Amino acid sequence: MKRALFIIFIALQLFLIYSCSTPIEEYQAKDNDEKEIIDLLIRYTEAINTGDSEKILTLFHEKGVYVASDGNITLSREKMSEWKRENWLSYGLRKLYNPEIKLNGNEAEVMVKVKYGNVSYAQIFTLVKENDKWLIMRRE
User: Which of 3, 41, 66, 81 is deepest in the core (most CB within 10 A)?
Assistant: First the structure.
């Protein structure tokens, strides 16, 4: 009986997690900073999904770091510039959902749910605002 209730509880949690997904494009920003951050993440996703290395680099701070989701690859901005289109596309087309934005002055942390194919996982972006422009400091 307890096992059946536990299984039902887990199934309900999974249902809620996967059925309540808000695409990042539909997120209702609370202020201009959030709007700019969402726009940055949309441009990031478009660049990653097309393998546009030049565009990806423009979204990262000069000291920015890209950490692959599995943690096996860490790239400085300089190393990112050496990656080929195929490297970016090898992960498949991504879509971002359910952004949670924590603003702290000129810094922000954004947690999103990433989906590609049947895979879904959480991803964290650490951002900084410099010269009135949000940039990615770390993506992990």
Answer: 41
Please give the pLDDT value at position 119: 85
Name the stretches of the chain with pLDDT < 70: 1-20
> Which H or E element spans position 77?
helix 77-80
Which region, left, alpha or beta, applies to residue 117 given φ > 0 means left and ψ of -120 to 50 means alpha?
A: left
pLDDT value of position 16: 46
Give the neighbor-by-neighbor strand order of the sheet with 133-139.
74-76, 60-67, 133-139, 119-130, 107-116, 95-104
Residues paired with 72 in a beta bridge: none
| Element of type H or E holding 99 | strand 95-104
CB 127 within 8 A of CB 135: yes
Beta strand 119-130 pairing with 133-139: antiparallel
Give just the sign of the alpha carbon dihedral 38, 40, 43, 44. Answer: negative
